[in-house]
């Protein structure tokens, strides 16, 4: 059984930084596209960042470009999200997702993702 477990969330002041991690267990996900999504209170889930299986390709939501960086370590079955210059509007539960589809519009929509983590809460105070 595959599990994705996120960590690294917490409370931070605006302008601060956090690093999220997502560790996969149960099987290797080195051939999977992986991504970070978030759901803010009262809002729908939205795509944040994605990375191809090789790490060569990345994509970001416009709202986080230049502030967030996604990376992965396939040897550790882990994907990371470095978040800098955090804003109150970044407050959300952040979820890790994994799927064998390429990093395209289908993946970005997040529908039918093979695996999801349970999320980690990020709260940015003003």
Structure description:
- The protein is mainly β.
- The chain has one helix spanning 105-109, and strands at residues 3-7, 10-13, 18-25, 33-39, 45-51, 58-60, 68-73, 78-83, 92-99, 115-116, 120-125.
- The strands form two sheets. Strands 2, 4, 5, 6, 9, 10 and 11 form a seven-stranded mixed beta sheet that branches.
- A hairpin with a 5-residue loop joins strand 4 (33-39) and strand 5.
- The longest helix is centred in the last third of the chain and has 5 residues, at 105-109.
- The radius of gyration is 13 Å and the shape is globular.
- The N and C termini lie far apart (40 Å).
Summary keywords:
mainly beta, 1 helix, 126 residues, 7-stranded mixed beta sheet, globular
Q: Report the major sheet.
A: 7 strands, mixed
Find the count of extended strands (DSSP E, 2+ residues).
11
Query: What spatial form do the alpha-carbon principal axes imply?
Result: globular
Question: What percent of residues adopt helix (DSSP H or I)?
Answer: under 10%
Instruction: Give the SSE order as H and E letters.
Output: EEEEEEEEEHEE
Oligomer, anyone? single chain
Would you tell me the structural class of the helices and strands? mainly beta
Low-pLDDT segments, ≥5 res: none
Strand content: over 45%
Number of helices: 1
Please tell me the overall pLDDT. 97
Alpha carbon gap, first and last residue: 40 Å
Q: Which radius of gyration do the C-alpha atoms yield? A: 13 Å
